[in-house]
Hints:
This protein is mainly alpha-helical. Helix content is 77%, strand content 0%. It is built from eleven helices and no strands. The longest helix has 19 residues, at 179-197. The radius of gyration is 20 Å and the shape is elongated. The mean pLDDT is 88.
Amino acid sequence: DVLRAPSGEAAFDTFRTRVQEENQNIGNHYGMALSLSKIGLDDDAQRQFKKLAEQYPGVIAFRIGEAESLLKNGQIDTALETYSNAIQLFPRNIPLTNSYTDALIVAGRAEEAHNILLDLLNHSSPTPEQFRLIAQAANAYGDMGNAHHYMSHYYSSVGNYSDALIQIQMALESPDLNSVDRARFESELLTYETSSEE
C-alpha cells in the first residue's frame, strides 16, 4: 500500500487512520513506519520500527527498518550496532546482509562489507544485487581487479554477456593483479567469450 500511495503524506494518513481503527494489525503499524521514513520523519520511524522489532523479534524487516531509519538520521554507529546485533541473530540473511553491507560502505568500512558479502556469496546462490554490492565494496577500498570481476558476474547474472566480457577484460588490465586472480579472471574471460558468441 505504501508503494501505491500517491505520496508519502497520503500513505502516512492512510496508515495512521488504519492504526487508530485497527490497532492490532501489525501490517498497519509496519506501513505507518515505512511511510514515516518516506516523508523524512526518521526519528518517529525509528521508534516505530524499534517497537515492532521488540514485539516481533523474528521479523527481520523490522530490524532493517530500524537500522535504515537510524542511518538516514545520521546515527551511523547506532545503526551499525543494530545491524550487527541482527546479523548475529540472522546470519547470512540476504536482505539483512545487503542492507548492512550497504551501510558499512557508506560508513567507510568497505573492506568489512566486502568480507561479509564474500562469506554470503560462498554460502548461498548469489543475486545480481549481491554482485553489484560486492563490486561497490571492492571499488570503495581500491581493489579494482575484483571490483571489475564482480561487476562481470553482475552483468552475467542479468544475461548481459557483452558487458560481462568488458568488465572481466578490465579486471585483467588492473594494476597489482596477483597470479591467482589473473588465472581466475582469464578462465572467466574464456567463459564469457564463449557465452557472448552463442
